Amino acid sequence: MVDWTMIPTLKKFINFVLLCFVSSLPVVYAASGQDLDIPNGLPDRIVGDIGAAVYSTNLNIGSYGTQSMVLPYGFFDYQRFAMRIDQLAFKTAPIGFGFLEIVGKVDPDSYKVKSTINSQTINKGYQVPIGLGTFQDTPIGAFFINAYHDFGKSKGNLLELNYFGEIELVNKVTLYPQVGIEHQSSSFTSYYYGVTPEQAQITGYSTYSASSSNNPLAGFLLEIPVVEDWYLNVYGKRKWLGSGVNSSPVLTRSFQDAMYMALAYRFK
Question: What CATH number should be reported for the domain holding residue 128?
């Protein structure tokens, strides 16, 4: 079932985003320095980075440690389609420095919980977040604003706000510092971090029901030129879980880490 308690929050979030950027349209398009080859932001060719990466995450759930895998890597645009590492987007109406988008998030983590008490395992499955969002590439940095509904088993909601700055270091090495916050609804947190009576019998954990949680995060992306149009990208992020979930018995720590190293070719 949909977590109806989150619907007013979700509507307010989306309305706030739309109001902010629609009200700024006249200023934005007067000042926007878009690529002259892509005047409408909808390139007729692939523009951006495509390659492969080693992804690693540590959710600090149960006794499972770091999960690592080799997967395709992409941060590029093609007409109305965009791939931004773990997000797929379809651009609709222009808004601010970007578009209002239909977005989906790709999360390869399986949320398996291996008990630290008796080594029994329960598998909570994968997230399927789909919703609305926008990527705003402004003169002061890039903003990612997304509102998702999880069509997986939790039926919960996710709200995300992320900001990336840009600092050019030496020899064209560029640092992109990241700060952000994520809101998880009570349906989402109760499913992925809660413990039902049945699961408590299997794992030996105490029963637990989580509440909604606000999770701050910080990270960085380091872009290193290799040769010609090839780049090495190194990324790391830490998310601190809020009070709604950080006392869950399935968690071994109150934070989660994600990182990757990618080698990509830049299409122009």
Answer: 2.40.230
